[in-house]
Amino acid sequence: MGSQCNGDDFEVPEIKIKFTKLFINGQFVDAVSGKTFETRDPRTGEVIAHIAEGDKADVDLAVEAARQAFDHGKWPRMSGYERGRIMMKFADLIEQNIEELAILDTLDAGKLFTLGKIVDIPGTVQLLRYYAGAADKIHGETLKMSREFQGYTLKEPIGVVGHIIPWNFPSTILFFKVCPALAAGCTMVVKPAEQSPLSALYYAHLAKEAGIPDGVLNVVTGFGPTAGGAISSHMDVDKVSFTGSPEVGRLVMEAAAKSNLKSVSLELGGKSPLIIFNDADVDMAVDLANTAIFFNKGEVCVAGSRIHVQEGIYDEFVKKAAESAKKLVVGDPFDPRVNQGPQVDEGQFERVLKYIEHGKREGATLLTGGRPCGDKGYYIEPTIFTDVKEDMLIAQDEIFGPVMSLMKFKTIEEAIERANNTRYGLAAGIVTNDLNIANRVSRSIRAGSIWINCYFGFDIDCPFGGFKMSGFGKDMGLDAIDKYLQVKSVVTPIYGSPW
Ligand code: NAD
User: Fold this and answer.
1) 183 CA distance to ligand 1 middle (Å)
2) Rounded distance, CA 368 to CA 314, Å?
3) Catalytic residue (one of 5, 179, 186, 301)
4) Tens digit of each residue's pLDDT (9 = 90 or more) over 113-124
5) I need a labelling partner for 123 at 20 to 30 A (CA). Which of 5, 146, 412, 437 fits?
6) Which atom of ligand 1 is nearest to the CA of 251?
7) Residue 2's pLDDT is what?
8) In whole angstroms, what is the distance from residue 338 CA to residue 268 CA?
């Protein structure tokens, strides 16, 4: 077996699920239809809770509340400084509840509990504080215009925003979007993924406690085509910010075009290459490659799923990559010794296994892994394929699971061509000590993030988003606020101007 499933000599924290209803206009309410759906624990497949199933009628109510809060409420009208203070309070409250929030994301999405406590949830606190500090620094420009005019620009909040969120980082991606929108003075309707609704409802409760006015932040849990579709086609939503698959991104854009031509930003999938050159330290490259694909069980949009290794070190790399993958411990994400938890749900579990079977049928060599792990839940062994050809499905499709495709290359030109041979353009990694190779390849790859001698080089200050079919519009960084603003030009004549 390529990995071990651990025993049960560790403690699973107890938790009572407190919030299961929609959050509209500052209140937790049932869906208009009265319907609920089950959210399941990927460790076992068992039901965790029944969640209110919002659809069009609920989205209408949430948008109406957000519209009122935008058109007549305090939030867009208060000073940026005041908005920032409330956002800081929101951050403090999250900080006081890190453990509980991390438990929710582990239960819902199978994420490692230890990482949730030190990365995902503290990351939301950091995002809130970063954008809170920016809320009072949003300003336009003064324009010395030609002829006898002068003007200035105002940056105004875009209005009511719909945020549609995936399940792989239920907290982080939610706050990528909510923070700059709050700082800009927007009001919003959030739709978390149906696989991972629990933490978003908890955050809504904390937002109210922090003093975010009713109607500013609404959460409608439910399914994509119904609740998500109602947001992207709503005539009174001014912008939709979406993270998810390219297929659904296209539907969101179509719905926006067919309704009120709302502004759209899309953060979509990837099939990111990691290119390892002959001069690389092989042990370091193996560590990077295994982290790039096996972190968060491969359910990462920027996962380094195509590993291109130069021929001089290929054989050594293959041997060491397999040894390293076999050492990863697959098991209960509450166990602090575990490196890899379960895939998010049965659908993803089956999908990943199908790709593995497809890889074998296409003629790739299964070096290690490839099987389900354990007798319950959705665990899959860390899997490595060698002899992968570029036109194979496993080298082209986003598998979104712990499956590495290893490929050999000879020259730098070949590496660049192969790296770009994808419809995606989210990220790429380069491992070399040659500065010129690093710079040349960085400029040649069409992707939004390039990581040299590192992988997952994320920081709040560093814009993140795709090229090509990985979407458009950046999350993180100060510029992300601009997605939630619109620029107004104000012009006055000057009579008798000397200039
Ligand atoms: P998904 O596209 O199936 O779902 C994403 C969200 O869209 C969910 O909330 C879902 O309910 C909603 N949705 C589904 N159908 C809809 C519709 N017709 N109209 C409106 N909303 C709809 O994606 P997923 O399976 O949740 O997430 C995996 C995908 O997300 C992968 O492709 C991954 O690469 C991508 N992703 C991208 C980034 C990024 O920042 N680029 C980050 C994380 C995940």
Assistant:
1) 24
2) 16
3) 301
4) 999 999 999 999
5) 5
6) 18
7) 41
8) 29
- The sign of the CA dihedral 70, 75, 78, 79 is negative
Name which residue sits closest to atom 9 of ligand 1, judged by CA: 193
Interatomic CA distance for residues 327 and 339, integer angstroms: 9
Kindly give, in sequence order, each residue whose CB lies less than 8 Å from that of residue 217, ignoring residues fewer than 6 positions away.
23, 178, 182, 187, 188, 190, 204, 207
- Rounded to the nearest angstrom, the distance between the alpha carbon of 378 and the centre of ligand 1 is 20
- Residue 418 burial by CB count (10 A; 0-12/13-18/19+): exposed, middle or buried? middle
* Neighbour-count burial of 141, counting CB atoms closer than 10 A to its CB (0-12 exposed, 13-18 middle, 19+ buried): exposed
> Given a cut of 70, is residue 499 above it in pLDDT?
no
The total number of residues shown for the chain amounts to 499
Quick count: other Cβ atoms within 10 Å of Cβ 50?
A: 13
The one-letter amino acid at 109: A
Residue type, 149: F
CB 404 within 8 A of CB 289: yes
Percent pLDDT > 90 in the chain is 95
- Work out the percent of the chain whose per-residue pLDDT is above 70: 98
The two tokens of residue 336 are: 């602090």
Positive or negative torsion for Cα 324, 329, 335, 339: positive
Q: Which residues line ligand 1 (CB under 6 A)?
A: 164-168, 173, 191, 193-194, 223-225, 228-229, 232, 243-245, 248, 251-252, 267-270, 301, 398, 400, 426, 466
Q: How far is CA 303 from CA 91, 170, 257, 414, 431, in A?
A: 29, 17, 31, 21, 16
Confidence of residue 146 (pLDDT cuts 50, 70, 90): confident
Tell me if residue 301 is catalytic.
Answer: yes
pLDDT of 222 > 60? The answer is yes
Tokens of 306: 């195509």
* Average pLDDT, integer, range 256-265: 98
Atom of ligand 1 nearest to the CA of 164: 9
